[in-house]
Amino acid sequence: MPAKTINDIVALCKRRGFIFTGSEIYGGLGGAYDYGPYGVELMKNIRNAWWNAMVYSRDDIEGLDAALISNRLLWKYSGHEAGFSDPLVECKKCGTRMRQDKMKDSKKCDACGSADLMEPRAYQLMMGLSIGATTDGATNAYLRPETATTTYTNFKNVLDSTPHKLPFGIVQIGKAFRNEISPRGFVFRMREFEQAELQYFVKPEEDEKYFDEWKNTRMAWWIEQLGIPADKLRFTPHEKLAHYAKAAIDIEYEFPDGFDEVEGIHNRQDFDLGSHTKSQKEFKINATVLENTDSITKLSFSDPQTGENFIPYVIETAMGVNRCMLAIMHNAYTDEDLGDEKSRIVLKLKPNLSPVKAAVIPLARNVPELLKTADKIVGDLRKLGIGRIELENSGNIGKNYRRHDEIGTPVCITVDHQSLEDKMVTLRHRDSMEQERVAIKDIQKKLLEIINK
Ligand code: ATP
Question: Is residue 406 within 8 Å of 16, Cβ to Cβ?
Answer without folding.
Answer: yes
